[in-house]
Structure formats: structure tokens, C-alpha cells
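Changelog note: in this version the structure field was regenerated for every chain. One regenerated record is shown below for reference.
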Amino acid sequence: MTKILSYTGYYFLYFLSFFPFFILYIFSDILYFLVYYVVRYRRSVVRTNLNNSFPNKSQKEILSIEKEFYSHFCDIFFETIKLWTISKEDLKTRCTYTDTEFFDRYKEKGQNVIVILGHYGNWEWLPCIGLDKDIEFLSIYKPLRNKVFDKMFKELRSKTSTKLIAKNDTLRTLVKYRRDNIFNVSGFIGDQTPNKKNIHYWTKFLNQDTPILQGAERIAKKLDSAVVFLKMTKKKRGHYQVDLIPISNNPKETADFEITEKHSRELEKLINESPAYWLWSHKRWKHKKND
């Protein structure tokens, strides 16, 4: 029964992907009303996160950010589904890079790149630069338990020329790429919540003690890969701009935690500029430092 329901959902979402954006955004507005006012999906989590992150903002400001977040949250749901059927040309006009030759310069000098991003904007669209470039864009992901929806996300992400690497195979795969001299850009999500056993570094992030994963920094030092932060800003509904901010071109020369701290500060600055576009429903602070 679960499998039947999963495939029903899969084909229904595939069918929806054929609708034009203006229709999908009407659906998004309807979904926003249901998610925010009826289901009240994780409202307490979002409100707590916002209050703790912005203690100086009024409740009116918090409420405004909260509503804008839920509206954006529903938008990216439909924008992600649209990846199934969106044309290459349309995607490139909706997700633009300010420096399209950025990765070419690293390729010319033979240095692979680790890009770090957050759950900000529409992170599923970010690898679209690989559509026009001879770049192996690798995305680290955790396979879903539901095989049908795992298949769905693999298909959606393949539309941006992304090759998925299971989390546990990350280092082995990147070492192989380096050994075979294949230039690659690998993407790491920098705002995941670490398992307790993997917490080795804490910092102040959005006014709270926050554990930060160090996987990207460790791999960058081991493989001498450049580290870059992907800054994605939302220009208007369904349109994003991506700026590439170098964090370190010589990771082996950096101090411990330096790279981790730098990319955390870049994400924090981005969130402070436009708070509504971060994933506030994520339980980012479920671990406490004094525990």
C-alpha cells in the first residue's frame, strides 16, 4: 500500500511539472494557506528559531518574516518539481551566475573546487551552471529511505547536470576523481545539523551556540581543493542570482576551523540581509552546547 501511494504521489508531481510557472505559483499560494493557517506545519519550530535568532526584532517583524518564509517555502517546492520539465534555456535565465568563467580559472590551473552552500534561496537550482560547462558537478546527499522519492530526487537533480554521491562515499569518490585527473566541483551543505558524535566545533551563529560540520574543511585540506561559498540571492519570484565568494585557495595553509568559521559567517551575513529565504523549519539547534 505504501508503495502504491508513493508512486501515485510521484506521477502526480510529475504531471504538475508540465504546468507553466504562473499556474504553479497559484498552486503555491493555495499550498501556503493550507500549510501556514490549516496544517500549521512546524509553526512553533519556525517561530522559536526566528525569536532566538533575532532577539532585537519586534513580534510584528518576526511575523512578517515568518509568513514570507512559508510563502517562499511553498514556492521552492513547486520550483523543484518544475526541474523535471523546465528547459535548459529557461533555467539559465532564472538562475544566473554573475561570473560564468569562475570555475574555468580553477580548471585551468588544475585545482578542484569545494563549494559550500546553505539551505537558502532554491539550493536545488544552484548546480545549473554545469549545463553549459564541461564540469563534473558533484552533490553530496543522503539517500532517502523511501525508494520512490529517492528515485524522484535523483531524476530532478540530474536535470541540472549534477552527479549525486552518497554521503558515505564522499571522500573515496573525490580521491578517485583527483587520481584520474578529472576536474570537479563538489557541493556541500554547510548548515546541516551534525550527529552528536560528529560535533567538534561550536560557534556563535545567529546569536546562538551552534555546532558546525567540518567535513568540507577536512576534505579540502586533504585534497588541497579550493573552497568557495555560493551566495544565492532571490531577485524576484522564480529568479535567483548566484555570486561566488572565495573562502580559501590554499586550504592546507589555513588554521584549524578557519574555513569552517569563514563560510559560516558568509551564510550568517546572507541570512541577516534577507531572512525569509533560509530554511527556518529545520531543527538547526536541537543540540545544546552544555549537553
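Spot check on this record: The mean pLDDT is 91. The beta strands are 95-97, 113-117, 136-141, 162-166, 184-189, 202-205, 208-211, 226-236, 239-248.
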